[in-house]
Amino acid sequence: MNKNNDLPIIYSLRNCPFAMRARIAIYKSQQPVLLRDLVLSDKPAEMLTASPKGTVPVLITPKGTVIEESFEIMLWALSMSDPDDLLFTGDEKMLDKMLALIYLFDSQFKRCLENYKCAKRYSETNIIECREACEVYIAQLERLLTEHKYLMADRESLADIALLPFIRQFARVERQWYLHSPYPHVRQWLNSYLQSKMFSKVMAKHELWLQNRTDLLFGA
């Protein structure tokens, strides 16, 4: 049972990149939520009632508002609290640039990434072609990271944490190729996240909520 009715609830899947970036934003916002981990083969009835489409993440506010898209959850969390100013408050041009980059990767790169992952999984003959389609976007990040420490500036932004889980996936498809690929700045940027305290906290393994229905306080 939820004994903290004043806290939002988030249904999450540990390794889903969409759920991952929602958790990262919540962690960065220091906004406390009740985390309910699940597996897709066993979805809680409570989640399906709130969001019949049955995908994660799903966030339910104390007032009952349901937020079903990972990027919308990120914006919700950072609108509640943004101690690191990941939204670059007051700099509308920078915010527009961030949103444009995120949209590009959400609408185009992710489709290329799925094709690349499938080519690897099923040993298809077009894996190099699929990889090269992804590289168009990875090369863009490499260029940005030669100009500054993070994607948008010398400090972290919403764009960094929004793209992070998907660049992590890209790096894992052909690990040996990636380690020797011509993207040293992307590797350094990604490694700094993967080795961080933040990532360890966000990726910590928890007992599945349906096993005992005990809510886990996360983000505070």
**Helix content range of the residues, please?**
55-70%
Which of globular, elongated, flat, extended, rod-shaped describes the shape?
globular
Number of domains: 2
Strand order across the biggest sheet? 4-3-1-2-5
State the end-to-end distance: 20 Å
- What percentage of the residues does DSSP assign to strands (E)? 5-15%
Which CATH top level class of the largest domain fits? Answer: Mainly Alpha
Do you know the CATH architecture of the largest domain?
Up-down Bundle
Helix/strand-derived category reads alpha+beta
Which spans of ≥5 residues are poorly predicted at pLDDT below 50? none
Key attributes of the depicted protein:
single chain; five-stranded mixed β-sheet; 220 residues; Glutaredoxin
Topology:
Elements: E1 9-12, H1 17-29, E2 33-37, H2 45-50, E3 58-60, E4 66-67, H3 70-80, H4 92-121, H5 127-147, H6 158-173, H7 175-179, H8 184-194, H9 197-202, H10 209-212, E5 216-218
Parallel strand pairs: 1-2
Antiparallel strand pairs: 1-3, 2-5, 3-4
What does this structure look like?
56% of the residues lie in helices and 8% in strands. It is of the alpha+beta class. The protein folds into 2 domains: 97 residues, 3-Layer(aba) Sandwich (Glutaredoxin), CATH 3.40.30; 105 residues, Up-down Bundle (Glutathione S-transferase Yfyf (Class Pi), Chain A, domain 2). The mean pLDDT is 96.
